[in-house]
Amino acid sequence: TIALFTSETPSGWVVGQTYGVYKDPAAVATDFGVDSNSYAMAVAIFAQTPNPIGTGGYLVIIPLEVAETVREAIIRIGDSVFYYAVLIDNELADSDPTEFASLVSALQAAGKLFGYASSDINDLNPGSPLDLVRQASEYRGRMFYYGDPLLNGAALQQTQIFAAAYLGRGLCVDFSGVGTAITMHGKALVGITPDQTIGQTQLELAGTAGIDVYVSIAGIPSVFTSGANQWFDQVYNDDWFAQALQVAGFNYLMPIAFKIPQTEEGMNGLKNAYRRVCE
Questions:
Q1: Secondary structure (H, E, C), 216-243
Q2: Which DSSP string do the residues of 99-130 spell out, in sequence order?
Q3: Fewer CB within 10 Å, N or C, the chain?
Q4: Which three-class secondary structure state does DSSP give residue 135?
Q5: Amino acid 99: pLDDT
């Protein structure tokens, strides 16, 4: 599940509506227009094969109010809709690095994954706003660099389309299956061309800073990932595992018809609920 916090204004929403849930880009086009950043990012998410829809996911779009920050919008929305990953439609690290750092820190503490892309090649250097995320070990802040323009209709800040495509491909694990976990390293992204601004020097800088990029390796378009700020799949799978244990335990402890006995039988039932997640 992915939440996109956008500065764009939808049309046709009912009075008082604060978010919309989408499972295809056509509905986003209806509400935000085909030239909007929201539509372009929705296309990137849903174009990936596989993508989150195949595992029960969805896209939530949350328009920002006037002069509202993403952090303030997160508080305003509260628990009214569930989402795990977060996208924004601007390059906040360049326009407001202090607010960017505060947003990454807040999402880390909240257990939310943050996918963010920069088009500033200087952000690969040590001490950049993206490198500071690695230095702070804020591993839920997944930092990307994409220097080539994405000419697919978005009016502004097209770099975030790369972040949307990345999360669309990465957040597609079928955790009910066996052997279904994936790594993002080497994956191809539908609709994204390899970045021509990346050379060997830039690739090494990205690896040191924990920033993922999209390059051509032996002519094959591939995500090149770094474990400097943990691996994407390590973070995602660990968060799923922790949440799945919580849900399994809650479901066992909160039946309607009877009370769980405080005996070996009751404890074994709880442990078995956890074991099924581990298996």
A1: EECCEEEEECCCECECHHHHHHHHHHHH
A2: HHHHHHHHHHHHT-EEEEEE--GGGGSTTSHH
A3: C
A4: helix
A5: 97
Instruction: Locate 162 and state its tokens.
Output: 């790369």
**pLDDT at residue 256 in the model:** 65
Alpha carbons 194 and 215: distance in angstroms, whole number: 5
- Going by C-alpha positions, the residue among 109, 112, 54, 63 that lies closest to residue 85 is 112
Q: In angstroms, rounded to a whole number, what is the distance separating the alpha carbons of residues 168 and 115?
A: 10
Tokens of 230: 């943990």
Predicted TM-score of the model (pTM): 0.92
Parallel, antiparallel, or unpaired: how do β-strands 85-88 and 141-145 relate?
unpaired
The two most distant CA atoms of the chain are separated, in Å, by 63
Helical pair 25-32 and 37-46, crossing angle rounded to 10 deg = 180
pLDDT tens track for 72-99: 999 999 999 999 999 999 999 999 999 9
Supply φ then ψ for residue 217, to 5 degrees: -115, 115
Nearest of 150, 157, 146, 154 to residue 196 by alpha carbon: 146
pLDDT value at position 150? 55
Indicate if the alpha-carbon torsion angle 254, 257, 262, 268 is positive or negative: negative
φ and ψ of 143, to 5 deg: -100, 135
Smallest CA-to-CA distance from 89 within 112, 122, 117, 113 is with 117
Task: Write out residues in the chain with pLDDT < 50, as ranges.
Answer: 151-156
- How far apart, in Å, do the first and last CA atoms of the chain sit? 23
